[in-house]
Write a structure and sequence with these properties.
Elements (H helix, E strand, L loop, with lengths): L1 E7 L5 H14 L4 E7 L10 H17 L6 E5 L8 H13 L4 E6 L7 H6 L2 E3 L8 H19 L7
Parallel strand pairs: 1-2, 1-4, 3-4, 3-5
Helix pairs in contact: 1-5, 3-5
Function: Specifically methylates the pseudouridine at position 1915 (m3Psi1915) in 23S rRNA.
Family: Belongs to the RNA methyltransferase RlmH family.
Enzyme class: transferase
Length: 159
């Protein structure tokens, strides 16, 4: 399975990079995982609704350029579907069973994802009704993908 995590924004925090590197190492025996880091659109602090829309659309174009036609896309969004770790594991197992070997998880910037990206998504996923920094979300997502592979292989992992 080939998994891409396409994320807007640069990761600067050393402790997050270390955690992400650890999960990438753990995942390497289960899948090929790559992180695609795209620059966020520079914008002033106080944006009008039209300016916010434009920022999301520009970021969305960059995201969509990184997704091939045969990729199953899962967009992370507050309004997405909340799932348990077991449900995510079952979803990934089902995708693999039915020949979907390319999966992309999309993490938007601080304003969220564009309509075009949401329309391209085959599924949505929410980890909480709370808002998390997109840098931290990468680490949380990698941990859950790792947990999913452990669940699917009936391998022990702390609960």
């Amino acid at each position: 399975m080939n998994i891409s995590i396409i994320s807007i924004g640069k990761l600067k925090e050393k402790y997050l990079k270390q955690g992400i590197d650890e999960y990438l190492k753990r995942l390497s025996s289960y899948a090929k995982v790559e992180i695609v880091e795209l620059p966020d659109e520079k914008a002033p602090e106080n944006l009008s609704d039209a300016e916010m829309l434009m920022v999301k659309e520009k970021e969305g174009i960059r995201i969509l350029e990184k997704i091939s036609e045969d990729t199953h896309v899962i967009a992370l969004a507050i309004e997405g579907k909340m799932k348990s770790s077991e449900e995510l594991a079952k979803d990934l197992d089902r995708l693999a069973t039915y020949g979907k070997s390319k999966i992309a998880f999309i993490i938007g910037g601080s304003l969220g994802l564009s309509k075009d990206v949401m329309n391209r998504a085959n599924d949505t996923l929410s980890f909480s009704k709370m808002t998390f920094p997109h840098q931290l979300m990468r680490l949380i997502l990698l941990e859950q993908v790792y947990r999913a592979f452990r669940i699917n292989r009936n391998e022990p992992y702390h609960k």
